[in-house]
Amino acid sequence: MDGVLDVLHAAVTSPWFYVALFAVATIDGFFPVVPSESMVITGGVYAASGEPDLALVIVLAALGAFAGDHISYLVGRGSGGRLLARARPGSRRDKALAWSRRVMDERGGLILVVARYVPGGRTAVTLTMGAVGYRLRSFSLFAAVAAVSWAVYGGLLGFVGGKAFEHDPVKGVALGIGLALTLTVVVESVRFVRGRSRRRAERSAAAAGDEHGRHGRHGRRGEGAEVGEIGVVDGAAALGVAEGAGTGSERGAADAL
């Protein structure tokens, strides 16, 4: 065990750790299978003992996240034209694209910041924002807010764990990652409950439209309820609430939409 700790200490306190941290945070932006958050937390834990430097850990993690988000955005933008060309007017994909574009225009910045803390969700959101043509200037602004807040959160979380277990960094890392997982579970639980309530409301609205149609007032279902239901289902997938959405490729963008 002591040998493993010595290797871990040597790796985290090496100057090459900064390079690896930036690279991993960048890759995680468009290929969300690398442990960027765990790496930031680990850097924060060891920073409590003096090395690495906490400020550098936060800065490089934020820069890497910012760069990775932009790569994902550009992949989405590059595939967006082809997605639009394949979307037949009135089709589910066409409605999903329209719904996603409208939602992103209204509150895309908030969605981007929140998605930074949802595993896999950040990639689905950045791909979608690129595909629907979200303004690059606005995207960069909110991506910067998301990256900095995420890096500060991860670095300080690890630092707190490192201070609590200054002579046992493994426990410090475990505490930091445990707190991060707890926050993720809370966020996902709230999102699940809200999504279920929203779907229930949509079903109620659709049922009301059916009842209205059966009474023959207009002889058809309410168009707004139908479009709303399709938009919520397909748009939710576009925003990455389906697990595993977004692979950092054109296929990922197409699946998300």
TrEMBL record:
<keyword id="KW-1003">Cell membrane</keyword>
<keyword id="KW-1133">Transmembrane helix</keyword>
<dbReference type="Pfam" id="PF09335">
    <property type="entry name" value="VTT_dom"/>
</dbReference>
<protein>
    <recommendedName>
        <fullName>VTT domain-containing protein</fullName>
    </recommendedName>
</protein>
<dbReference type="InterPro" id="IPR032816">
    <property type="entry name" value="VTT_dom"/>
</dbReference>
<feature type="transmembrane region" description="Helical">
    <location>
        <begin position="16"/>
        <end position="34"/>
    </location>
</feature>
<feature type="transmembrane region" description="Helical">
    <location>
        <begin position="54"/>
        <end position="76"/>
    </location>
</feature>
<comment type="similarity">
    <text>Belongs to the DedA family.</text>
</comment>
<keyword id="KW-0812">Transmembrane</keyword>
<dbReference type="InterPro" id="IPR051311">
    <property type="entry name" value="DedA_domain"/>
</dbReference>
<feature type="region of interest" description="Disordered">
    <location>
        <begin position="203"/>
        <end position="224"/>
    </location>
</feature>
<keyword id="KW-0472">Membrane</keyword>
<feature type="transmembrane region" description="Helical">
    <location>
        <begin position="172"/>
        <end position="193"/>
    </location>
</feature>
<feature type="domain" description="VTT">
    <location>
        <begin position="34"/>
        <end position="152"/>
    </location>
</feature>
<feature type="transmembrane region" description="Helical">
    <location>
        <begin position="139"/>
        <end position="160"/>
    </location>
</feature>
